[in-house]
């Protein structure tokens, strides 16, 4: 289970290849996502039934669901995603306020 996932984190979803749509596109099945999804595969080495890992940034988190930007956004259960890298906000080098004169 992927606890501690927040907006901005990079996560991975393991999908299964369904079929090759065109020379450079592959249809994949994402767990707990009821719509078709296709990705670009220029290597043409993916076969039907093979697992592939899709990575994207988290756009939103609810109680049990996570919205991941896989272009288009995909909403899946939080149990399906795996945390790759946690988002760390940039550090500010100079203060926001000006120095007193």
Please explain how this structure is put together:
- There is one protein chain.
- The chain is mostly beta strands.
- It has one domain.
- Helix content is 0%, strand content 46%.
- It has no helices and seven strands.
- It has strands at residues 10-20, 25-29, 37-40, 51-61, 65-69, 73-77, 81-85.
- Strands 1, 2, 3, 4, 5, 6 and 7 form a seven-stranded antiparallel β-sheet that branches.
- Strand 5 (65-69) and strand 6 (73-77) form a beta hairpin.
Report a brief summary of the structure.
The chain has no helices and 7 strands. With 101 residues, it is mostly beta strands.
List the main descriptive attributes of the protein structure presented here:
101 residues, mainly beta, seven-stranded antiparallel beta sheet, 7 strands, elongated
Residue share in helix: under 10%
Rg, please? Answer: 18 Å
Number of helices: 0
Shape: elongated
Query: In percent, how much strand structure appears in the residues?
Result: over 45%
Low-confidence stretches: none
Elements, N to C (H/E): EEEEEEE
**What number of structural domains do the residues give?**
1
* Overall pLDDT level: 88
Decide which structural class fits the backbone.
mainly beta
Query: For the report, how would you describe the main beta sheet?
Result: 7 strands, antiparallel
Number of strands: 7
**Distance between the terminal alpha carbons, to the nearest Å?**
53 Å
């Amino acid at each position: 289970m992927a606890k501690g996932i927040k907006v901005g984190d990079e996560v991975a979803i393991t999908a299964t290849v369904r079929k090759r749509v065109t020379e450079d596109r592959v249809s994949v099945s994402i767990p707990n996502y009821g719509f078709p999804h296709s990705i670009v595969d220029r290597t043409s080495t993916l076969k039907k039934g093979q697992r592939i890992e899709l990575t994207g940034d988290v756009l939103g988190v609810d109680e049990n669901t996570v919205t991941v930007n896989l272009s288009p956004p995909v909403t899946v259960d939080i149990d399906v995603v795996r945390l790759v890298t946690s988002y760390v906000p940039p550090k500010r080098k100079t203060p926001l306020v000006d120095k007193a004169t």
